[in-house]
Write a structure and sequence with these properties.
Layout: E1 9-11, E2 16-20, H1 26-33, E3 38-41, E4 46-50, H2 53-61, H3 66-76, H4 83-95, E5 99-104, E6 107-112, H5 115-122, E7 131-136, E8 139-142, H6 147-156, E9 162-163, H7 191-201, E10 210-214, H8 221-232, E11 236-240, H9 243-256, E12 264-267, E13 277-281, H10 282-285, E14 309-313, H11 320-326, E15 333-338, H12 348-355, E16 358-361, H13 364-369, E17 376-383, H14 387-395, H15 398-406, H16 410-424, E18 429-432, H17 436-446, E19 450-451, H18 457-468, E20 474-477, E21 492-495, H19 503-511, E22 523-530, H20 534-542, H21 544-548, E23 553-556
Parallel strand pairs: 5-9, 10-15, 10-16, 11-13, 11-14, 12-13, 14-15, 17-22, 17-23, 18-20, 18-21, 19-20, 21-22
Antiparallel strand pairs: 1-2, 2-4, 3-4, 5-6, 6-8, 7-8
């Protein structure tokens, strides 16, 4: 094949891909390679992707094969693809599904067509605790209660199993979606939401029933979850990041489905109802009476009813204890919902093996073009520090440097300019940060209400309602607003400090302003960072996921209208 030096990518022998940002084919190449590789660096001119085992296995689970991958690489590459890269792609794509977990009467079997591979698995120290006996040269009987544990172990050793053992049906529950909501609005699923449910459920066959759906914030992940419940018509447990999220699920279920209030239960610190549809929080499930003991009393919720489906909202937040209990309930259908599979703790493999592989992924920019999420412009404003703060930063220990830079008092001036400009335009604004003292100061400067982790749920609801009704136009919010807060009229977010280099947090914060606006106005996402400090370094890392989705940050040293 003849390659074109004008193409935008270079594939390197270490399985990294260099992508030229200023190339005319940048966007097409980015969208193609993003389906089977991960963005790891995104400076101004050259972005670096890496093809990993997990990126290939997620691609394989989504139906992408080596032919698609090679076609994409060859179409956009300047030079020939290194032979070792081709070999590794073929190898790792082929590993997904070479081992399968199946039911044979009452036995649970691990099967494969390669007797030597089966022998290797049989003798592997990580697998031994979970298996009973070797049935023949292509099948091993495994412990049914260890179904999740063996899937996790197989992924770790590089041979992820395709789970075809099926699922329990769960207790029947009559539930349908409304065409007209109870608030008298027309309602129907969007095409991509239908596609997402179909990809997950697979008509109830053994090929569906566990997996993760990726949709941008504001694109209706809750609708996908409700549609899955209506499709399966079974008792369902829903786990959310916080009480606000739990109550938004309850409101949506009551508004858009045939479920009655008596069929929906809230299981939180404030009320403990177990009903056919029960909504709880990760914090509730991981509560321990004694921090020194590994006892989680609310794990009993997983066995309190005959659940046919468990929904993990914002699955990228799944805490380690919930991973452990999930490993033991693999006979339940499991649906993960998230905007990004990025986890800062590196446990993406556990989501893959225990919740399920990526089954559907809608690119953010595609949905923006279709009008399902708002168009957003991202701005990074890099400012200097006062001399006294520069000296404090220079003399500080490494761990303290980020906070000093993130709390740069010059940020208040820039935030004031942004607020004044957008207030004159009639916009609805959020100022978001992680340091409470900084947010308290901002709250006083703008005489605006502050929401933090200690704000009562009653007060949060009151402030959110005032914001939605346009009674107030500015909220100052801490990390509590990163997730599951529905503020459809918010169209400006100002980030003054973030959780170090958290890519998923950046995505969630942009997501606060992505609900489509009635007037089709553009959303603005501002990040104010201190120049030439760790604040700027962490900001660059936080932006990587959104860069992968096609967002570009306009960089400046001052606020420009």
């Amino acid at each position: 094949m003849t390659y074109n030096p004008q193409n935008p990518i270079i594939v390197q022998g270490d399985k990294t891909i260099l992508l030229e940002v200023d190339n005319p084919n940048y966007e097409n190449a980015r969208d193609s390679i993003g389906k089977f590789s991960e963005l790891i660096k995104s400076p101004e001119h050259i972005h670096t992707y890496r093809i990993t085992n997990l990126s290939l296995w997620n691609a394989a689970a989504s139906g992408i094969d080596t032919e698609y991958i090679f076609q994409a690489l060859e179409e956009y590459s300047k030079y020939a693809i290194p032979d070792n890269v081709k070999t590794d792609i073929i190898d790792y794509i082929s590993r997904y599904g070479r081992l399968k977990i199946k039911k044979d009467n009452e036995m649970l079997l691990l099967t494969g067509n390669d007797p030597i591979l089966i022998t290797e698995i049989w003798n592997h120290v990580k697998i031994k605790p979970y298996i009973y006996k070797k049935i023949n040269e292509t099948a091993i009987e495994i412990n049914p209660s260890m179904r999740g544990h063996i899937k996790k172990a197989l992924t770790e050793i590089g041979f992820p199993a395709e789970d075809l053992a099926g699922y329990v049906t769960g207790e029947f529950l009559a539930v349908d979606l409304h065409n007209i909501t109870r608030s008298n609005e027309p309602f129907k699923l969007r095409d991509y939401q239908i596609d997402a449910v179909n990809a997950f459920y697979a008509n109830g066959s053994i090929y569906g029933g566990s997996g993760t759906i990726l949709l941008p914030c504001g694109a209706g992940k809750t609708m996908v979850g409700m549609a899955a419940i209506a499709e399966m018509k079974c008792n369902t447990l829903i786990i959310t990041p916080n009480i606000t999220g739990a109550r938004q699920w309850i409101e949506e279920l009551i508004d858009k489905t045939s479920l009655t209030e008596d069929e929906i239960g809230e299981y939180t610190g404030e009320t403990k109802e177990i009903r056919p549809i029960t909504i709880t929080t990760y914090q509730m499930l991981t509560y321990r009476p004694k921090r020194s003991e590994n006892i989680f009393p609310h794990f009993s919720l997983f066995n309190s009813r005959n659940w046919g489906l468990i929904i993990y909202d914002e699955v990228h937040l799944l805490p380690a204890p919930v991973f452990r209990i999930t490993a033991e309930i693999q006979a339940k259908r499991r649906l993960g919902l998230t905007a990004t599979l990025v986890r800062e703790d590196g446990l993406e493999e556990d989501v893959f093996s225990l919740i399920g592989p990526k089954k559907y992924d809608a690119p953010w920019k595609d949905l923006e073009k279709q009008g399902w999420i708002a168009e957003a412009l991202c701005h990074e404003i890099r400012i200097d520090m006062p001399d006294d703060k520069r000296l404090e930063y220079a003399m500080a220990q490494d761990r303290a440097k980020y906070r000093i830079a993130a709390e740069n008092p010059e940020k208040y001036t820039i935030a004031g300019e942004i607020v004044q400009y957008h207030r004159e335009r009639g916009d609805r604004m959020l100022i978001i940060g992680m340091y409470i003292d900084q947010l308290r100061t901002i709250s006083k400067i703008f005489n605006a209400p502050l929401l933090t982790g200690v704000t009562s749920n009653k007060k949060r609801k009151e402030l959110y309602d005032k914001f939605r009704s346009n009674e107030i136009d500015l909220l100052i919010v801490s990390k509590v607003a990163n997730f599951a807060v529905d503020l459809p009229n918010a169209n400006v977010a100002v980030q003054v400090s973030g959780t170090f280099g958290s890519r998923q947090e950046e995505a969630q914060r942009l997501g606060r302003i992505l609900r489509p606006k009635k007037d089709n106005s553009i959303a603005h996402f501002y990040t104010i960072v201190t120049k030439d400090t760790k604040d700027q370094d962490f900001s660059a890392k936080r932006q990587m996921f959104l860069t992968e989705q096609g967002y570009r940050y306009e960089i400046s040293d001052k606020f420009t209208k």
